Amino acid sequence: MSYIDLQATLRDWPYEPDKISVRKILGADEAVRIQMRVELGIIQMEAEGRPDGARPHGSDTLLSYFQRKLAKHQERNGTPMGFFLTPSDCESLRLEASLFYRRYIAYFVLEEFASVNRDTSHSLAIFDLCRDFALENTDRHALEEFRAYVLMMHARANAYQALEEDEPASALAHVNRGLLEIRNHLDRTGLGDFEACEEAKILRTLAAELGGKVPTESAIGTRKALRDAVAQERFEEAAKLRDQLKKQSRNRK
Predict the structure, then answer these.
(1) Torsion-angle region of 123 (φ positive above 0: left; ψ -120 to 50: alpha; else: beta)
(2) pTM greater than 0.85
(3) Contact call for residues 242 and 227 (beta carbons, < 8 A)
(4) Residues 6+ apart with CB under 8 A from 230
(5) One pLDDT digit (tens) per residue for the chain, 253 residues
(6) Domains in the chain: boundaries
(7) For residue 148, how many other CB atoms are within 10 A of its CB?
């Protein structure tokens, strides 16, 4: 068996302590993969499925394997009661959540927000499964201290994706929903004070920034009139409507 010295590769991509360095590569099999530079080397992740490429019990992910087991249990018994996760099951699910954490951070740096949304949704589903079905009380609560962070990342990803689609009102709605979910989580678990929560502070700051981007009712009407004028080739009217939109935008600032 031969081994490859990575020294040249690491030298060409130096580690920067104050920066999360991420890149996408095309593998020898022409599959896209994600690499993250860390202090002692490079982490490589699959772009889809489990980040480590594993297929636990022949499934795409461990979460999907247990979700199918739960669905079969419910179909057989008519209720989820009696279904449980062992400490070993929960430990394996926590490992999978940590793998998805690394990848959604990488996708966030790459500004691929749909993928951040997908991976944070996966992590939150793991949190829910362990909370609801872990046999041991410690396993039910082990991931809850991280929920506020994942909810915050999920809300930010949805908000930035909405902004890319020029939907600031939708972006603000995603942020406000994230704030509500964090508040409900902290109230339910008693794990912290909402006003002092760092994740909530980040979302409140983002909400304030988005507030200035959300068009008023008059601006929405002007935009519709502008689209109609352009579609009907009434260009002189369209020019006046554009000027009106610019004035409305300045008044909001």
Answers:
(1) alpha
(2) no
(3) no
(4) 238
(5) 778 888 888 999 999 999 999 999 998 899 999 999 999 999 999 999 999 999 999 999 999 999 999 999 999 999 999 999 999 999 999 999 999 999 999 999 999 999 999 999 999 999 999 999 999 999 999 999 999 999 999 999 999 999 999 888 899 999 999 999 999 999 999 999 999 999 999 999 999 998 876 654 445 555 666 677 677 777 776 776 677 666 656 555 5
(6) 143-214, 217-252
(7) 24
Query: What is the residue whose two structure tokens read 């449980």?
Result: 84
Cβ-based burial of 119 (10 A; exposed 0-12, middle 13-18, buried ≥19) = buried
- DSSP 8-state class, residue 15: -
Write down the architecture of domain 143-214 according to CATH.
Up-down Bundle (1.20)
